[in-house]
Amino acid sequence: MWLEMRGVERRFGRTVAVSGLDLTLPQGAIGCLLGPSGCGKTTALRCVAGFEPVDSGEIFARGRLLSSRDVTAPPATRNIGMVFQDYALFPHLTVLDNVAFGLHRDARAARERRALEMLALVRLEDCRARYPHEISGGQQQRVALARALAPQPDLVLLDEPFSNLDIDLRGRLSLEVREILKQVNATALLVTHDQNEAFAMADLVGVMQNGRLEQWDAPYDLYHRPATRFVADFIGQGVFLPGEVLSAGTVGTELGVLAGDVPAAFRPGDRIDLLLRPDDVLYDETSPLTLQVTQKAFRGADFLYTLALPSGAVLLTLVPSHFDHSLGDRIGVRIELDHIVAFPRGG
Ligand code: ATP
Asked: Which pLDDT does position 66 carry in this prediction?
């Protein structure tokens, strides 16, 4: 594995910022640590960068031990490129000189050639003679990426790289940065609290809570096969509906008997909370199951309707926005589960 973290722990006094963190990242993959404020994601990234020592566990890159309880290789020796939230460009250097900065070991002509190559990669050759304050925030972040990639690091770390940018630009830039990293086959680890950003950028995403990594998986699996209740809640939208396992392929609920593969951990008779995502609840005008619309949110292409059940529980459904229903209308829906995501009732 290109990057490997084994049982990494970092404490600050009595605060356990990172606890028992295991993850691996193959060469060329983009990983992302995602989680709410204070969950420990920045501390984990700083441990990889070498800005923080680890109290136990090990960090390896390309098989080389970078950190353990007794070892903290200095950041400058780790061959890691960093991109920070605040760009951290040198204001008194031109764009070209900023990118060339980390290439001090090379001859002047080689440095300039490499810096220009990197500026071409991020499509900013035309800005090479400008100073950071003469380009936009999104452009500054691309310069920061070019600077991080110029020395051909083993690993690129990105710490909330888009959080200073407006939302439109964030969406665009996250896809662009992914493309650039893929073009040079860089291995990267990103930290963000923004799920859309994590999903747009990363091949593997880890959801953290209270210093622990709850799941390290492809975005698709985090959404469709959340390992814990916290991940199910944190990722995407959805509601939990009480139910009882009837068989390996059916669950009894207020909506009737629902079919789908029940996780092997459950037995008939078990009381569960069943996760229903908006995409499990299909709009169907011919369905005998009709529910009242209690809230609606316009999303452009579709409406997110909240539907009330007699018990007071709610469901969410996404409906194409030309079906414009009013609050109080009853609409037909059909539940379509492929596999069932469930957790022990109330757990
Ligand atoms: P945010 O998104 O708000 O940056 P985070 O998920 O990156 O949060 P960390 O910054 O890693 O979280 O912090 C994890 C925990 O460790 C928090 O409780 C924080 O207060 C604590 N912590 C982080 N750095 C230090 C430090 N230098 N000294 C003491 N406590 C710290």
From this structure: 98
